[in-house]
Design brief:
Distance between the termini: 42 Å
Strand content: under 5%
Shape: globular
Strand order of the largest sheet: 1-4
Largest sheet: 2 strands, antiparallel
Structural class: mainly alpha
Length: 699
Amino acid sequence: MLFSVRFALLRHPFFACFELSKTLSDYSSTRFERDLIRKFKFFFTATVKSPKPLRSCHSVDKLLPPHAQPNRLPIYSYRTTSGISLATLVQLRNTCSIFQQIVSNSDAKRREFRHSIVVHNSTVSNDPEMFSMKTTLLPWLLSLLCVALSYASDKPADKDTEPEDAGFVIGTRDPKVFNEIDRFILARLRQESIDPSPICTDYEFIRRATVDVVGMIPVGDEIRNFVNDKSSEKRAKLIDRLLNDNERYADHWEVMWGDWLREHTAGKKETEPGKYRDWLRAALKSNMPYDQFARQLMTASGKASENAATNFYFRDGSNRVETVNTVAQAFMGSRMACAQCHDHPFDKWTQTDFHGLMAFFAQVNVPKPPNKKKDKNAEEQPLTDKPKGDYHMPKEGDEAKKGSNGGEIVQPRFAWDPSASTSGSTRREALTNAVIGSPRFAAVQVNRIWSQLMGRGIVEATDDFREKNPPSHPELLDFLADQMVKNKYDNKHVIRLILNSAVYQRSSVPTDGNRSDKTLFSHQRIRRMTAEELFDSILVSAGHDKGLADMPAALADNNKSAAKKGATPGMARKKGQVEWATDLPTPAKTGTFMNVFNQPPRSIIITKREEEGAVTQALEMINGQAVNNALETSPFLTHLAAVKTDPRHAVTELYLATLTRQPTPQELESSARRADGSRDWLMDLQWALMNSREFTFIK
């Protein structure tokens, strides 16, 4: 990689060279930073791609670190273009032997030195004050560059020391750097001269993280304990606790996979009720490595009653077109459906690509389910791989009606890398090896997780990986994919990384400077809860710790057939009781709460749910059975009414349980003024809070 490194000095360059060498050798002085800046007034430029001229030099004041500017806010100005990759910085740091000679092992001194310079990813040209020292000072300059950016590499910070970027600022704001994710995001924000929003409050964080990880809002005691905790590690501890709630974690993330894999428990004879969902939940509950997750689905064999992963195939009967589309979208992030009949009009995929994938499934034998009505003794047949079988390109027009096998024979071909090996014990095994071995495989999964937590993907949409739809942060996507592979495809590791980042923990309130940003993650995205999240949050806020188990009216409304038969889709796991929205049949019946709030029919892959509002949704929240039944049978309201607590305390408890925050003084006085001591008053107040936008949306 070509670096153009130049050094701007006010003094004569030869004198400056001598002084620089002398100062570096005396680095043990704590005044090194201030002396160096005041003597030389310098900056560096490192060009990686597309160099652009720097229009003007920075003044001494703009280079001064915070402790050198006691009477003003620290201001650092950045001009960046394409950026320097972490791999380059790591290589520089590791290969430059002078680095260890310049700076001691003191993290504090390294921070001082880093703040004494400003690094620009641009090239200064045609400047009479610039003096090129490629031969004399190049080793020193490369060393300085290593020192300045050493903490931009993947070196973990020491636990006992202050975070290296704790005082790092852009303009008048303080963009915290909690882990490596933040460095990638901040680098891009600097390029666009965008200030990020500050970190969100504890109330906002616990509500956001709890919904994102386990699919429901937190309860009052959890909120109080978290907010009152003065530990600096409390957010990391909360994240670990949520991720360790394997039952609720599996319930919540199964909803996402249910949309992607079109899981359903009603109206499809090929799928045994509940089995596919139970397999997905078991895989998520055990935190099955993602590569094993994909392998078990794509190579599943046997009877559905013995191996529920076979529903990946039984779901579509003998229709392997849907299987190819699922593999392409869910595991490789590509929309290939158009290429079934013709070359893709907007992407590179051809008919040969699509049918080359179809050939991998030519030897799969998916039997029809036994027809118990015609033959009570009919036995379930296993899904197997035939030893032989060629795949023929479908014929068109009149030739297709003659009942022939089709056109020419098509050999298996892995569209994303035709040179990839197609060896394996079966064709499906060969395809699975090629999918998991592709760099795209991990990238698609981490992008899907990022989208789930951040509201949009690094590649958006998450199933649209192509050259004309590049990632907003390619280095970040590579970093997360690398983390996925290095940690043995551990989904929770990637989730934990994202949740612990400052990017995730930013406020959703935009600043004047980042209000128009929709793609660079300068502030958190406000999003509406999904149907399942909203339904379960209603139950939790009303104190229904067992969910739907003690609400027969709501159960009958959302699951009439299951209530009549005394059975539920999750009976094997839940011992005969539907507890939460994620246990209800899918797809939801028309007119039910889940249907009104956009639970998809799952006839096709849904990568992101619709968030548009509708009048029917407002009516459901105002007068629907879900809200009214939850409030009328609320253990929480019954308890508040029984203890006859002070009205202000009751208002505070209702705000905490419903909106996950304390009421403002105006809200407290206004609500308490209307108190009459009855349960109806409490129920009316919580009903009003549930019907506010603040309850339905996560900020």
